[in-house]
UniProtKB/TrEMBL annotation:
The name this protein goes by in its record: GTPase HflX
Domain named Hflx-type G: residues: 204-387
Recorded GO MF terms: GTP binding; GTPase activity; metal ion binding; ribosome binding
Pfam families: GTP-bdg_M (PF16360), GTP-bdg_N (PF13167), MMR_HSR1 (PF01926)
Gene3D superfamilies assigned: 6.10.250.2860, GTPase HflX, N-terminal domain, P-loop containing nucleotide triphosphate hydrolases
Length: 452
């Protein structure tokens, strides 16, 4: 067994005026990594003023050993912390027991409560707010009975602002969950209708997926026009051309859709909430409405931070694939981002080491633009095939309207005029080609009917 603790004095002096927190983590074996929980704490507005780790089997009463909890209490006092953030799934009794050993007023926050806190801070649209509320309720539901007991023992209100607990609390939570799901279903239905209208107009839908902080928002700015095309989508500050990309988790929570710049096709690119390690199934499901833009895309770009160590990249890829392939049927293109941070030769080594989980990745730097032109080509290659068609039409107002429509909904390779005819050679989605053929057939039939 091995333990570690530190007061983190440098952090205490260099932080902002936010809440002060000690971060802690227990692992069964090996060394505990606190890098992600420190990032999450910063994203939630905490100043990390101390840290503690322990390597041992889980203690049923305290998560950590009781002696380590005493050490945690002393560290909190020394650092004058307001909260203890535990990078584990801490049960309600464990939370209560640890809190009882800490100075009065010090909050105990587990990993998932912290993530929900961040989500709540980022939720600026009705859909995002509903999804956060749903996640909070789903987190609370299995703990309701235990928390009722704790509330009676400690004479405190329920956790997470749900009020005093009584026999009806579980029923009330289920009722709220049902109502939120109904409202989200209504919002999702409207979103699917908009996606259907876009597909009918010949537009391909491409989704950006990947772990938070992989550079998805930066890549979106590199690929897309400035104008947000979905009037119901949230526009995030980190998508402004004048804004810097923040080195912070969860800078994007809702979805933002923008028109991407491709050579032939009209493509709408959607950026969504980033994945994060060790998210429980109930939390992923709570954001199903947001993830629908990934699951129902024509193509998914899985963005991975190539500056991370190989094993971290491998874990990211495996976890992302588990999330994506559960429901997604669209092709997935892996994008190794941040190659500007790599030493010479490192990219080739990582390609070789990760070929089993990323057999044909495309490497880019969203920051510098390296590889982005190749990524655009790859996107067009991977999207569903278009059909090639050649229409010969009589020159008329109706025909010119059809030619204009084909330009708007496909890629016109050649348009020629000879005498009283116009020939249009174009590529488009099969549905667009079928509609163009039908309109051309109607025009051809109209003179015959008139003469008859």
């Amino acid at each position: 067994m091995s333990d570690g603790a530190g007061a983190g004095a440098a952090d205490a002096d260099s932080g902002t005026d936010g809440r002060r927190a000690v971060v802690a983590k227990r692992v069964d074996s090996g060394a505990a990594d606190l890098s992600e929980i420190r990032q999450l704490a910063a994203a939630a507005g905490y100043d990390v003023v101390g840290e503690l780790t322990q390597t041992r089997t889980e203690d049923a009463a305290f998560m950590f050993g009781e002696g380590k909890v005493a050490e945690l209490r002393d560290l909190v006092r020394h650092a004058d912390a307001d909260a203890v953030i535990i990078d584990n799934d801490v049960g309600p009794y464990q939370t209560f027991n640890v809190g009882g050993k800490l100075p009065e007023g010090v909050e105990v926050v587990d990993r998932f409560t912290l993530i929900l806190e961040i989500f709540g801070q980022r939720a600026n649209t009705r859909k995002a707010q509903l999804q956060v509320e749903l996640a909070e309720l789903r987190y609370e539901l299995p703990r309701a009975e235990a928390k009722a007991s704790l509330a009676k023992r400690d004479e405190r209100p329920g956790f997470m602002g749900l009020g005093e607990y009584d026999e009806s609390v579980e029923r009330d939570i289920k009722r709220q969950i049902s109502g939120i799901r109904d409202e989200l279903a209504s919002i999702a239905g409207k979103g699917e209708a908009r996606r259907g209208q876009r597909r009918d107009s010949g537009v391909d839908l491409v989704a950006l997926a990947g772990y938070t902080n992989a550079g998805k928002s930066t890549l979106m700015r590199r690929l897309a026009d400035e104008l947000a095309v979905d009037e119901n989508a949230e526009r995030h500050r980190d998508l402004d051309t004048t804004a810097e990309s923040q080195d912070m988790l969860f800078t994007t929570l809702g979805t933002t859709t923008r028109r991407a710049e491709m050579e032939k096709r009209d493509v709408l690119l959607t950026d969504t909430v980033g994945f994060i390690a060790d998210l429980p199934h109930w939390l992923v499901e709570s954001f199903e409405s947001t993830l629908d833009s990934v699951y129902r895309a024509d193509l998914v770009l899985l963005v991975v931070d190539a500056s991370e160590p190989v094993e971290a990249m491998r874990e990211t890829l495996v976890t992302s694939h588990d999330t994506l392939y559960e429901r997604n049927e669209a092709p997935v293109v892996t994008v190794f981002n941040k190659i500007d941070r790599l030493e010479p030769g490192a990219l080739a080594d990582k390609r070789a080491a990760l070929s089993g989980v990323a057999p044909d990745p495309i490497a880019v730097s969203a920051k510098t633009g390296a590889g982005v032109a190749e990524l655009r080509d790859r996107v067009e290659d991977e999207l569903p095939d278009w059909e090639r068609e050649r229409l010969v039409l009589p020159v008329s107002d109706e025909a010119m309207s059809l030619v204009s429509w084909v330009h708007d909904h496909g890629y016109v390779a050649e348009e020629t005029y000879a005498g009283d005819q116009v020939t249009v050679d174009f590529e488009a989605k099969p549905s667009i080609v079928a509609r163009a053929r039908a309109k051309a057939a109607e025009m051809a039939a109209a003179p015959a009917e008139a003469s008859a």
